[in-house]
Amino acid sequence: MQILVDRGKCQGYGNCAVAEPRVFDLDENGIVKVLVDAPSEELRDQVKYAVLDCPARALHLEG
Question: What is the CATH number assigned to the segment(s) 2-62?
Answer without folding.
Answer: 3.30.70.20
